[in-house]
Design a protein that fits this description.
401 residues, alpha/beta, three-stranded parallel beta sheet, 11% strand, globular
Length: 401
């Protein structure tokens, strides 16, 4: 809170600093310690707290319940409490019970923002979902979004809560499908770019989220896909399709590890088969445009390579200025270079793990000049295979010959 009051935005998110600075300067935004302080006298209270995953895949609602308990006594009559957090079906009722305020409405209003483009996504939504059995309360919340001229989907609370999980589960499924087809393309000699372009041109399918890579990650897809399985299981349904989506993603990490091992001229059987191999990693975050390392496929792959004996040194644009405490903890065991070429210095194998544009702009000759080997595994298909091979790389990517 002190950092935010000082105008410092503690995360990487395009456009967020301008939005916050402008709102603070205009007197429309302030930061306080304590939920009750902000909720007292408010017409609308948004609950935007973490819902971390328990060991069984279900969502931990303790933060949500704690926030509701804190604001309950200070809410004014007629206030509307809005769940923005990703919560399992029935959480609206949980908040109602904790609040113990029959004179207050509780509405589900899940968010659909992508990290890296969150400000743009908020201001240009595909839809706004509002769930509440009280139509009047739903309309009050819908009115808040009127300036955005967005499609508003008004439904019951349980359906709104399900929409959020189902949307993320479907997107994760599309990525896993693309990665599974990429593996098939490598086996049969097809080109994943042509295949995805062909099926994505079908209006019933669409091209979004059909790009192959090292697997999906971040703070939403892994948590929400497992939560879908857990919620279904709790209600007597085996969501085997979603379990398959998760399995394909786990397998994709291992496929990328095998690619690196093959590029190094090693197998992956036995104990520490990558001993003595130096890996230069480009990217730590789960996607470009964010500093989020949670459930990053890049880190899952690098940890597996390190466990097999490889020495890993990497670089990410978000670590260029040094590591904060969170980054230092999550990157423990890896070398962190000050720039991309530093990460590739003396590497036997270079591996691209995050699709930062600055990596695509690297000069192949300069990359090779600092490396010990010539192998490049491009898990994001950032580079043109012909260009990289012409430069002298032994080049491998995902789903392309």
């Amino acid at each position: 809170v002190a950092r935010l009051r000082a105008g410092e935005i503690p995360i990487v998110e395009a456009g967020l600093d301008e939005v916050v600075h402008d709102a603070v300067a205009a007197g429309r935004l302030e930061f306080v310690v304590g939920a009750a302080t902000g909720a007292e006298g408010a017409d609308f209270v948004f609950l935007c707290v973490p819902t971390p995953q328990d060991d069984d895949g279900s969502a931990d609602l303790s933060y949500l319940a704690a926030a509701a308990a804190e604001i309950g006594p200070v809410l004014k009559a007629g206030a509307t409490v809005i769940n923005k957090s990703t919560v399992p079906v029935g959480s609206t009722s949980v908040v109602e019970r904790v609040l113990q305020r029959p004179d207050v409405s509780v509405v589900s209003n899940p968010e659909f923002l992508r990290e890296g483009t969150a400000v743009h996504d908020f201001l240009n939504p595909d839809r706004v979902v509002i769930g509440c059995d009280d139509t009047t309360a739903a309309e009050r919340v819908a009115a808040l979004y009127a300036p955005l001229d967005a499609k508003v989907v008004v439904t019951d609370a349980a359906s709104a809560e399900t929409i959020k999980y189902a949307a993320n589960g479907f997107l994760a499924m599309k990525i896993s499908f693309a990665n599974a087809v990429a593996a098939m393309c490598e086996a049969v000699g097809a080109n994943i770019d042509a295949v995805m372009n062909g099926i994505g041109s079908d209006a019933r399918i669409g091209p979004a989220f059909l790009r192959p890579g090292p697997g999906w990650g971040g703070s939403c897809f892994p948590k929400d896909s497992r939560a879908l399985v857990a919620i279904a299981s709790q209600h007597g349904y085996d969501f085997s399709m979603m379990r398959g989506v998760i399995s394909v993603n786990d397998e994709q990490h291992e496929r990328m590890v095998r690619k690196v091992a093959a590029a190094a001229g090693r197998g992956v059987a036995g104990y520490h088969p990558l001993e003595g191999v130096r890996v230069g990693a480009l990217g730590f975050t789960f996607k470009a445009g964010t500093d989020d390392l949670r459930e990053s496929p890049a880190l899952a792959i690098l940890r597996r390579l390190a466990a097999l004996g490889a020495t890993v040194t990497g670089f990410d644009p978000t670590t260029a200025g040094g590591l904060d405490d969170v980054q230092a903890a999550r990157l423990a065991g890896f070398g962190v270079a000050p720039d991309a070429l530093g990460a590739l210095a003396d590497a036997d194998v270079a591996v691209v793990l995050t699709e930062w544009p600055e990596f695509a702009a690297l000069d192949p000759d300069k990359m090779l000049s600092v490396m010990r080997g010539t192998a490049l595994v491009d898990t994001r298909n950032l580079f043109d295979p012909a260009v990289m091979r012409a430069a002298g790389f032994t080049y491998d990517s995902v789903g392309r010959q």
